[in-house]
Amino acid sequence: MKNKVILIYIYFGKLPSLFEIWKKTIKYSKNVDICFITDQNSELHGSNIRIIKMNLDELKERISSALGINISLNNAYKICDYRPMFGIIFADLIQGYSHWGYGDLDVVWGSFDKFITDELLDNYERISKYGHLSIYKNNSIMNNLYKSELDGECPYLNVTQSPENNTFDEWWDKKGIE
Predict the structure, then answer these.
(1) Quick one: how far is CA 113 from the chain centroid?
(2) pTM recorded for the entire structure
(3) How far apart are CA 108 and CA 85, in angstroms?
(4) Residue 59 burial (CB count, 10 A)
(5) Over the stretch 27-73, which tens digit does the pLDDT of each residue have?
(6) Distance, CA of 140 to chain centre
(7) Is the backbone of residue 152 left (phi > 0), alpha (psi -120 to 50) or beta?
(8) Distance of alpha carbon 6 from alpha carbon 159, whole angstroms
């Protein structure tokens, strides 16, 4: 595979019951790297896996700093609203990758490169628009896509100030293949 993909997973609190199965399967996807950010002590091993230990307050500071605004982040579920912004928030982690994305820990992928191919990555700037898996081409346009207007407004500004989860990672944009 000529394209290089990194998926960023963030999970705070007790890891879900499917985590053991998930972590076994990600080792078999050699053409995708995993960055797992958590406040838990986690045993993840594999040449394609990187663990970053961080708490919710540290993540909130990182997001605020990257976006240049004070944000609302009072619970772990709210992180989903910031997923489309990961291209900016984690610019240092996605350097050198052709694509970046995010996903859910309760989805077991198996061999990722059997269904996310170079052909697919070459022909689309965004794959999927839902939170369980979304992949973006690593370029300025896609990394800043979350700033796009929707019905004449920039909804990300309201989302970042709201304490509630707005499922921004699933509704804010219609671009991408499903």
Answers:
(1) 18
(2) 0.91
(3) 24
(4) 20
(5) 777 789 999 999 988 777 777 889 999 999 999 999 999 999 999 99
(6) 16
(7) left
(8) 25
